[in-house]
Each structure stands twice: as structure tokens, then as C-alpha cells.
Amino acid sequence: MSEAKPMKAYAVLEEYENTGGIFYARHAVVARRNGANEHADGEFSAVTCRRAHWADDYYGKGLPISVMVQHGWHFECAGCGRRIDEDMADWRGQTRDEHSFRQILSIARRYRKWEPSHIVGTQHGIAFCTSQCHDEHEAHEAERKRRQAHAIEVFRRRVLKRFPDAKLVDDPSRLRPHAFATMNKGRWCVEQVSVEFEFPGMKHGPAQYRWDRRDIWRDRRKPYFTCCAGDKEAFEEYAVATADNPLKG
Questions:
Q1: Residue 1 has what pLDDT?
Q2: Cα angle 41-47-53, degrees, rounded to a multiple of 5
């Protein structure tokens, strides 16, 4: 019985936008087909395929972006947004039109000893130009999640304060509380919060207590209650029956 042929690395590129990746297959035609499906909507003739011997040893291990950069590939840093390529250490390409003099000096200091081995990430994952960018991104996302969780908790407490016998909905298979926070001009801003809850007399679906910062049809300063159209009458009766509670909606 003959042994199976080893997996080989192939660089598959879409011809017009020059996007692509490294694909592993035993035959070039398979790699090309897989690459076309991912980068060219299945158009086999719209991609090129060539051997990438340097990537063979990374099959099944995760191909480091640092190795790809050393072989001419480039990426965008998920942290600072800079283009990750072999010329990152050359700060002279930064002009006053792109950055202030102070920013150029900061870039020069940060990347003066940069080399491809400093890159964090593997193909099909998130790329970071340095571990510092990676750590800053992780801290940023952790703070985002903390603020989103806090906003949800505040809204949950408000719902139960207004409707003490409401049943908050937190079911991954149905609906879950939602919040989105982002950095705006150096300050954190909660853009949207939504908490679902069931109430007596509900027939069609949970009601919501929500706030949308960019909702031009409502007063952005005030959260509001809403429900399914078919439950409107039941919800209004419920709201009237509990009107003595604070935080009237």
C-alpha cells in the first residue's frame, strides 16, 4: 500500500485585487480550487497558484504571519492599523501630511528596533505588529466588555425596578442582553443597550428596554420600552397596573 503524498503549501492570489493566502493540498489544482472559492467567488481562472516551499513545514501548526511577511506578504495591524511589512522599521516613509512631527518621532522610537519576529499572529487569525500592540488591543477589548456588561446590568436593574414581576430573558438560543461601547474622540461611549423581558399577558414575544444613541426618531437622552405590535395592548395594561413603580416607561 503506497503512502499518502505529503501536504504542500501553495500561494493562491486573486489576480485583480491581489488578495489571497497560503493553502495546503497534495495537488496544485486542489489548492487553486480552494483559493478560488475563498477569494474569487469560485472563479477558478481568476486566481493564480504557485508553490510556497517555505511554508511546507507549518502544515497543521499554524503559519506565523512573521514568516509570511519575510516572504513578501503584508497585513494590517489590528491594534494600531499600520501596514505590517518588512519596511515597518523605516520611519522615513512617514510624512508631515500623514502625521505630526511628534507622532513621527513616536513611531520612530517604537519601531527603530522592529523586526518581523516581533509580529504576533498566524494566518487566518488577527495580526499585530508587536506584542505591545497586541497587549494594548487586549486591554482595550477588555475595557469594552466591562463597560458593555455594566450597561446591561444597569438596564436589567431598571427593568426590575419598573416591573418587579418581569422575567428577564437571557437565553443563548433565543435572545440575550446586548450592549455596544466604543471609543469616541478619546472617550468611551455606550452606543446601544437592549434588555429583553417577559411580562404577564405576553403572547408574541418579549418586550425590550433599550437605548440607541443614533436613533434619530427618538430622544437620544432617554431609554424607552417597546414590545411586539400584537402585545401592545397587553403591555400597556401591564404598564398601567404597575404605574406606581418608579422609572415609568
A1: 44
A2: 125
Q: Under a CB-based contact definition with an 8 Å cutoff, are residues 231 and 204 in contact?
A: yes
Average pLDDT over residues 100-109: 68
Q: What CA–CA distance (Å, rounded) separates 146 from 248?
A: 27
User: Which regions of 143-223 does DSSP assign to beta strands (E)?
Assistant: 167-168, 178-184, 187-198, 207-212
Confidence band for 204, pLDDT divided at 50, 70 and 90: very high
pLDDT in tens, 161-192: 999 999 999 877 767 899 999 998 889 999 99
Residue from 27, 34, 28, 85 nearest 14 by CA? 34
Count Cβ atoms within 10 A of the Cβ of residue 15 and give its class: 0-12 exposed, 13-18 middle, 19 or more buried.
Answer: middle
- Give the up-direction half-sphere exposure of residue 233: CA atoms within 13 A in the CB hemisphere: 2
Dist. CA 203–CA 230, nearest whole Å:
8
Q: Are 126 and 168 in contact (CB under 8 A)?
A: no
Q: What CA–CA distances, in Å, run from 229 to 28, 147, 174?
A: 56, 31, 19
Domain encompassing residue 164 = 141-241
The set of cell numbers assigned to 169 is 430573558
Other residues' Cβ atoms within 10 Å of the Cβ of residue 137:
17
Are residues 5 and 88 both part of a single domain?
no
- Whether 157 and 232 map to the same domain: the answer is yes
Asked if residue 183 and residue 113 are part of one domain, the reply reads no
Nearest to 110 by CA among 127, 93, 132: 132
Contact 188, 181 (CB under 8 A): yes
Decide if 136 is inside a domain.
no
